[in-house]
Amino acid sequence: MHRKYAADGLVAISVSLDDPADPEAKEKVLKFLRSQDASFNNFMLNEKPEVWQQKLGFDGPPCVIVFDTQGAVAKQFKDEFTYADVEKLVKPLLGKK
User: Fold this and answer.
1) Which terminus of the chain has a lower count of CB atoms within 10 Å, N or C?
2) Would you kindly state where each structural domain of the chain is located, as residue ranges?
3) pLDDT at residue 60, rounded to an integer
4) pTM of the model as a whole
5) Which pairs from 25-33 meet CB under 8 Å and 24+ separation?
6) What is the pLDDT of residue 96?
7) What is the dihedral of CA 38, 34, 65, 20, to 10 degrees?
């Protein structure tokens, strides 16, 4: 979706929730991101799960949070969703039909 809509203003980031204390986590995350050709900003949280779970309001992946152009949460997708569901929300936010 990033490749498809970046020119229209879509900004995408990924956030890994892997345990930062796990010495293999960073390499595992990097391997996955490379395999997906993730050419947008990618971050790894360095907080314990109970901290981000409370702040973000979910237990764990998968989750996609879509923000509107003013920075407000338009919708949080978690558990059962498809990227087609996300795209249906994103397109109108970008002014696409």
Assistant:
1) C
2) 2-93
3) 81
4) 0.80
5) none
6) 83
7) -140
